[in-house]
Amino acid sequence: MEPRIQYAQTADGVSIAFWTLGEGMPFVQMPSFPFSHIQLEWQLPGWRRWYERLAEKRMLVRYDTRGTGLSDRDVTDFSLDALVLDLEAVVDRLGLERFALVGPLNSGPVAIAHAARRPEKISHLVLWCSYARGSRYYESPQVQALRALRDKDWEIYTETTAHALVGWSAAGEAHQLAAYMRESIRPETVEAAWRGQEEFDVKPLLPQVRSPTLVLHRREFPFSDVAAARELASRIPDARLTVLEGASGAPWIGDMEAAATAIDEFLGEGVEPATAPVEAAARGGFRTVLFTDVEGSTALTERLGDAKAREVLREHERIVREALRAHGGSEIKAMGDGFMASFSSATGALECAIAIQIAFAAHSESAKEPIRVRIGLNAGEPIAEDEDLFGTAVNLAARIAAQTQGGEIMASDVVRQLVAGKGFLFADRGEVALRGFEDPVRLYEVRWREG
Question: Does 6-268 carry CATH code 3.40.50.1820?
């Protein structure tokens, strides 16, 4: 079903067309300026598949910037600040307090400017085949050649540009894209847009971006080389660079799934899983509490330094959060090098713990810095207060995790009895004296490798 076109009004009085698709985490994809037409895009099969893929797990937002598509075309201001106003109009119209943002191609500098100015709004920033300085982009021989061609013949210019963008082997897609380009903007508007983009220079803003950032780039993309992507990733704090094979600036041409998977994995980091409300515990609800802890995290930081160690710990956070989402876990809090989570089901908690260890074992086979995680579990009736859990059941789970070695899962006898007959394998580790508990506690190792 074709998305419904809606409109937002900018602070300088320009009407901006947009649509939304799907539900969940807001994900705003900016236009590949200066060519954009949100209605025609939906009619192109490749483009539609890309949008449907992005909207599988979230609410996708697409809009036409000023001068293009279904937005107001009688405009002359294409400055960086003006294009930021277009984005702000759409997110304000939708009431988005926080959202992920992708800036493809020439919209990348606009996305960077907004992320630097409004860090509280951007949960994640994705930059696709983009750059920091417009002058560097427009001074390239390829862009200069196309610019001269545009002044001679508008149709030949669009056909050539389309082939260069999607790859010379994708003749059918390129012809469709060229027709789309001619419908999306007037020839005279392109020149005004290019003049505005030549002035883009967000290099001074890069160190001010505080949102988690993924820089995605196609290795053979002709208009902006990998060096431009490296500049973005090196100057944005803790940004990640992923270089994909291929030459097309259209993510749905070539290995679309590689691009989509990279975005999925990145957006999964730092996102709280759908959680069961902890208020149930306050009413006497019975919960299984799980703690994780990275073994040797302090030594890791001393050896690698803060920045490199943080990269390792972000991978730990991604793996744990993916497992929590998959097994119905509620993330109660993250503690730098560990998590506290709760489950309504002891079976779900143990399955999650096993999935975490399997994922870390696979990761460590190829990683330069293997991650070894301790996991401890206990079950009981914790007290819920201020979105946290307290009480003996929680304290015991934390003490059990502290007794565990990296790569192990340790559980209390309560947990073992709750999952009796469910096929889990346990090894009796005997009674252990735990700090803060008067009587020794019998612990059981979950033999996840054998299982």
Answer: yes
